[in-house]
Known about the structure:
single chain, 7-stranded parallel sheet, 5-stranded parallel sheet, 13 helices, elongated, binds 2-keto-D-gluconic acid, NAD(P)-bd_dom_sf
Amino acid sequence: MKPSVILYKKLPDxxxxxxxxxxxxxxxNDLSPQTVKQNxxxxxxxxxxxxxxxxxDETFLTHTPKLRAxxxxxxxxxxxxxAALTARRIALMHTPSVLTETVADTMMMLVLATARRAVEVxxxxxxxEWQGSIGPDWFGIDVHHKTLGILGMGRIGxxxxxxxxxxxxxxxxxxxxxxxxxxxxxxxxxxxxxxxLLAESDFVCISLPLTEETHHxxxxxxxxxxxxxxxxxxxxxxxxxxEKALIxxxxxxxxxxxxxxxxEQEPLPVNSPLLxxxxxxxxxHIGSATHETRYNMAACAVDNxxxxxxxxxxxNCVNPQVLS
Length: 324
Ligand code: 8YV
């Protein structure tokens, strides 16, 4: 008998076929309490689940007594209660490597778009405002040779450092839990404390997971330490930044601009003051959202679930202690 799994994300046909060749798959739209209630029998039998951003916590786990593995189509897993999963010996699998380059591209795009005001001036062209030769009210600021500060030197931080160093000749500062020799050797990145990074960087780029330690790590106090000419980029998780404090800093002009792919609440509420600011580039959490990368993430998540339930896990497990 094939193990039963719940799929709560749409998969490309070939990947769905691969999943179905190993498992009895119940396809659902989400993991909302209503969906769980309506499909109680399927959840009671499920040994695996595969999806992405839905919350998986203690309450959810009371409905899945046979669950052995959860596979998320993402690198971030802050929506999973890892301690609760681990206590029940449920393996949590994620997709860390396949999206690195794409997310780093997104971050570099935000650096360029905010510095050169790409979105704002493109909108002015569309509005018919380009009537003669352009003056300083269309100008941006340079990116090349400016100092880039990276918070969190994981895979994505490293790929961003590579782009900034080789592509834009940018001196790089970074702050992370530990020194990263490769970043220092290959990209000349200099480790420094958070306050120094904030004070010296022209661009502060956040590439951190959301944890208890990183929640609101950038608040009013930290924003005040940044140069008033500096730009904040966040493509990690929204709640790493205190959004109210960010809005205030932008409104007061103590921060030059912000490029944001993630927000405290997603989708970003349409009445957010951020949407009224020309110096804010707000993206709809597209960090990894290319056809190629989203396919590779989904394929990785499928393989992760197959490994966790029917084979041998060699990589991508967040809590490998449950496997022994
Ligand atoms: C995915 C992400 O957005 O991998 C992550 O952690 O934030 C994104 O790349 C998202 O979770 C949808 O699958």
